[in-house]
Amino acid sequence: MAGSEVVLLDFWASPFGMRARIALAEKEVEYEYREENLANKTEFLLRMNPIHKKIPVLVHKGRPVCESLIILEYVDEAWKKSPLLPADPYDKATARFWANFVDAKVYDCGSRLWKLKGEALEATKKEFIDILKLLEGALGDKHFFGGDHFGFVDVAFIPFASWFLVYESHGNFKVEEVSPKLGAWVKRCRERESVSKSLPDPHKVLEFVNVVLKKKYGIE
């Protein structure tokens, strides 16, 4: 580990890896970033995550922590500065619920937007917009999902903003038009240095999907 106390095994376009990057930035934790080639994974990654064999993996003092939401909770507990989860048990449970909702719904449905065509695409588009509207309802008129405080749900969800252009381009809709409050929330989040430095250019992500991922999945 070359003496690094904290190492993040990651891939630049992964919204799940972006979560870890944002959380570490919020906590001002110095760490070594190691970019993984997911087509040729390193022995270190396979050793640190032998069960799922995927990124992100946070390695702290030689011990691996896997799965992005678990990494977020670990980071929040290991470094006390700028807490991500609220102290109140009910508020904490609510934050975990919506973070799990993002995990279960956004990535899967969003991925289908660029894989499908015709009626299947239109049905997926409606499903995705419904997901956005549910999240917009949870946000309400608050600045962030936790209120005035940028926290757990924001960190879990904002990485997908770097993929919104992919979803919009293939689904023929605009997030700002179907969910204006979410659109404003994205802009507020992007004003934070932890977010702006952790999220890649959406056009680069779109190119990655159109050139690399579509070829991988055999999509015309």
Please explain how this structure is put together:
It is built from eleven helices and four strands. It is α+β, with helices and mostly antiparallel strands and 220 residues long. It has two domains: 6-78, Glutaredoxin, CATH 3.40.30.10; 89-216, Glutathione S-transferase Yfyf (Class Pi), Chain A, domain 2, CATH 1.20.1050.10. Helix 1 (15-26) links the parallel strand 1 (6-10) and strand 2.
Distance between the termini: 41 Å
> Biggest β-sheet, characterized?
4 strands, mixed
Strand order, main sheet: write it out.
2-1-3-4
- Count the DSSP helices: 11
- H/E element order: EHEHEEHHHHHHHHH
**Averaged pLDDT:** 97
Shape: globular
The CATH architecture of the largest domain comes to: Up-down Bundle
Gyration radius, rounded: 17 Å
Strand content: 5-15%
Instruction: Return residue spans where pLDDT drops below 50 for at least 5 consecutive residues.
Output: none
